[in-house]
């Protein structure tokens, strides 16, 4: 049985061109980029060329790009690193942040910081009035993600940054899901720090970047060497960094074409979901064109996910980083979705290789599985 992969927000397959670019650095060009001999200089050149590619993708200067192991490390480095040099005060984040933002913010409470969660509306958009209310108290740092990994809802981060800067706060955005799907411009967003990841854009796992305003001080969270301008110790993962750079180039070149084709597939998915009685979350807000998050009243999400997996469709019930949790999605609860409905949530996130035939087959299988699960539920209730 062939598998249709509908979970691209969790991770994407490695692009052939990315793999081809990485291979020499996994074999013959194995030098340490900190070494001064020819092998090392070649590796250093490859890292710096990749840094230029990543920077160009997000409208930044190469000197602003710090390579890290991925989005989670980038988020932690930004939040913990900036908080370490700021006077202790309030730290603000939206109610729909990834756990790698929300938990560091909570952890800083042990150092005297006051975490404050900004509300979102029923479609998952940041409540700007609540943000303004929170900024009336002295605030050191604000973090609001650019696009949500579960719903795909896009935030007006530029407006958030304008309000936060006016209040004297530093601003961070998690742009991991947005990269490669919408235009991401560091300068236009007006933030001080931005997190990126390679494996969401058909690049390798284990690599990401933190893009930083050079006027902002940052305390390293991994010490022991002068790597990455002294901000992230450890020998650079040269093959992954090279792959990340190529993946960024490809993402920019393919973004508009991908958006048009994948958006049409998402529309077809949601048309089928609506016909089967489903509820789409965040449907009235601007969203990433590849992402659909929905539930069917009375149907448990994990049960439906496993049924779809057996039928050959890989989907998700929320964030892959929270897949071990049996609790309803914190994102949906923040949006005011009832816990019972939130437990039914299933996420479809489409990618370049998906086809209309796969979507049509998915809707047909979804109809069969829903009928089976609903009939089982009816028997249990009798």
TrEMBL record:
Xref: PROSITE patterns: AA_TRANSFER_CLASS_5
Needed cofactors: pyridoxal 5'-phosphate
Catalysed reaction equations from the record: (sulfur carrier)-H + L-cysteine = (sulfur carrier)-SH + L-alanine
EC number: 2.8.1.7
GO molecular-function terms, A-Z: cysteine desulfurase activity; iron-sulfur cluster binding; metal ion binding
Residue span, Aminotransferase class V domain: 5-362
Record keywords: Iron, Iron-sulfur, Metal-binding, Nitrogen fixation, Pyridoxal phosphate, Transferase
Keyword Transferase on entry: yes
PANTHER family, sorted: CYSTEINE DESULFURASE, CYSTEINE DESULFURYLASE FAMILY MEMBER
Family: Belongs to the class-V pyridoxal-phosphate-dependent aminotransferase family. NifS/IscS subfamily.
Name the UniProt record assigns to this protein: cysteine desulfurase
Species assigned in the record: Sulfurimicrobium lacus
């Amino acid at each position: 049985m062939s598998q249709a992969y509908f979970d691209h927000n969790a991770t994407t397959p490695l692009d052939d061109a990315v793999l081809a670019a990485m291979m020499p650095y996994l074999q013959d060009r194995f030098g340490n980029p900190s070494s001064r001999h020819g092998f090392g200089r070649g590796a250093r050149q490859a890292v710096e060329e990749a840094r230029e590619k990543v920077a160009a993708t997000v409208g930044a200067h190469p000197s602003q790009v710090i390579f890290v192991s991925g989005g989670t490390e980038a988020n932690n480095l930004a939040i913990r690193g900036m908080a370490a040099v700021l006077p202790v005060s309030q730290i603000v984040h939206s109610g729909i942040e990834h756990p790698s933002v929300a938990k560091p913010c909570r952890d800083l409470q042990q150092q005297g910081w006051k975490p404050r969660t900004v509300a979102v509306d029923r479609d998952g958009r940041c409540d700007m009035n609540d943000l303004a209310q929170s900024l009336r108290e002295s605030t050191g740092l604000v973090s609001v993600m650019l696009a949500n990994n579960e719903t795909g809802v896009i935030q007006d981060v530029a407006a958030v940054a304008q309000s936060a800067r006016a209040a004297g706060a530093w601003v961070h955005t998690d742009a991991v899901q947005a990269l490669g799907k919408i235009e991401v411009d560091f300068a236009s967003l007006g933030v001080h720090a931005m997190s990126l990841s390679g494996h969401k854009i058909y690049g390798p796992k284990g690599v990401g970047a933190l893009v930083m305003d050079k006027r902002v001080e940052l305390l390293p969270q991994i010490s022991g060497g002068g790597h990455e301008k002294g901000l992230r110790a450890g020998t650079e993962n040269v093959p992954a960094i090279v792959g990340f750079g190529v993946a960024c180039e490809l993402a920019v070149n393919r973004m508009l074409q991908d958006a048009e084709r994948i958006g049409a597939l998402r529309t077809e998915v949601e048309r089928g979901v609506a016909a089967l009685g489903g509820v789409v979350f965040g449907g009235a807000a601007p969203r990433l064109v590849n992402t659909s998050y929905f539930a069917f009243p009375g149907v448990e999400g994990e049960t439906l996910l496993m049924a779809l997996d057996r039928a050959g469709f890989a989907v998700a019930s929320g964030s892959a980083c929270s897949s071990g949790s049996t609790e309803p999605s914190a994102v949906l609860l923040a949006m005011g979705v009832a816990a019972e409905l939130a437990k039914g949530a299933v996420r479809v996130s489409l990618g370049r290789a998906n086809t209309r035939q796969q979507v049509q087959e998915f809707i047909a299988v979804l109809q069969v599985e829903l009928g089976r699960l609903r009939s089982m539920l009816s028997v249990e209730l009798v």
